[in-house]
Amino acid sequence: MMQEPEDVSSIMAKLKSERNRKMGVAVILTLQVTAMVLTLRYSKTTTKYLSSTAVVCAEFVKILVCVMVLTFTHGMGIFQHLNQELLMKPKDMLLLAVPALLYLVQNNLLFFAMEKLDAAVYQVTYQLKILTTAICTVLMLDRRLTLQQWAALIMLTVGVSLAQLQPPSAAEDSDAGTSLSAQTAGIMALLVACFTSGFAGVYTEKLLKQTQTTLWIRNIQLAAWSVVAGFIGIYGTSDYETIKSKGFFDGYTNVVWVVVLLQACSGIVVALVIKIADNIVKNFSVAMSLLLATVISIPLFNFHPSHFFVVGAVLVLASVQMYSTSTNYFASFTTKLRPPKEDCSV
User: Fold this and answer.
1) Residue 76: how many CB atoms within 10 A of its CB?
2) How many CB atoms lie under 10 A from the CB of residue 81?
3) What is the pTM of this model?
4) Could you tell me the end-to-end alpha-carbon distance of the chain, in angstroms, rounded to an integer?
5) What are the two backbone dihedrals, phi and then psi, of residue 162, each rounded to the nearest 5 degrees?
6) Among 91, 166, 202, 337, which is most exposed with the fewest C-beta within 10 angstroms?
7) pLDDT tens across 83-129, in order?
8) For residues 201 and 278, is the Cβ–Cβ distance under 8 A?
9) Closest by alpha carbon to 276, among 336, 198, 344, 194?
10) What would the pLDDT profile of 209-233 be if each residue is shown by its tens digit?
């Protein structure tokens, strides 16, 4: 006997519940990133420390938090569980090396681009990562976006670019004589970094959604490779000499440790958003946190945003409204990702 199809009201109820979950995690990420940005700004005004070391510490804290959660779930069997999920599945660990390696390449490309481009061109061009993420989502996850959603993403890209744009200073104007070949190399590096960012994010999303491994184990795997990439990044910069002379934790205060904790939590929340929603929703959340943190910074740090910020903020808010009201409910319901597989192939 054939199973009767679900009626429209049942489908709409499921879609509404799913939409509420996505909205919930997006709001949590927005608030969390806002708190992290504000605390980070405050820490930079009160002490001097190496951001690269804080990133590595945050990954260690992320591992610790995930192990604590798994210990609460598995009790005395935690060591056996970690051995089975981490040590006994080397292929699984190697799969997570891909995004870590890509992010390492991306960071080097960004540093190269910073040296070749002025701040305005850099900030505007780098926001193309919003569009490259959407392109990778369509190609790698076989997901369809409506014309209105594409328009919203373009508007978000322009809005974030304007919100972060600052009028050039006199010193920047005097350095405007960068050669055309240097600018071209910088833009090419930035475009590759945008696609690297999009691919790495969507690749991680695919692993989180299409395998049965828990979110906590995935975070441990990602953090472990991020620690390796972080130390490689430190060794390849002047930070290594600073650490040798002053120590790894030079300049650390209680505020810096709060920043480390918030960064660790941010990594976990981002993974949660990607698993429940997607990378596109994550980009909207981060954009909203940028606006919120800037507005709060006005009275808190006596920060004076440029007139570009107002225009950018309006575009970001309009893009959020446009994207959220353009969802084709039935299409999104019928084009779900494939159910989890037993293996971890991608």
Assistant:
1) 7
2) 16
3) 0.83
4) 36
5) -70, -40
6) 91
7) 999 989 898 889 989 998 898 889 889 888 888 888 778 888 899 99
8) no
9) 336
10) 888 889 999 999 999 999 999 998 8
